[in-house]
Amino acid sequence: MSEKGGQRITAIERLQLRLRSLKGRVVIVYMQIDKNGEPEAIAIQDIGRSERLRDTSDRINEED
Question: Is the pTM of this model over 0.90?
């Protein structure tokens, strides 16, 4: 494991740092649990950009 200011960086913290650089992207994260029961990210697949779809449920309710 890596060290951060003398402390151990967890797999989740490493994953969070990596995902910050991928804001607005659609990714798939592959993880496994190690022998100690801790999560471990083994791959991050960047599959492209996403577009937030507008919620149309409000408009549908207004028409009723």
Answer: no
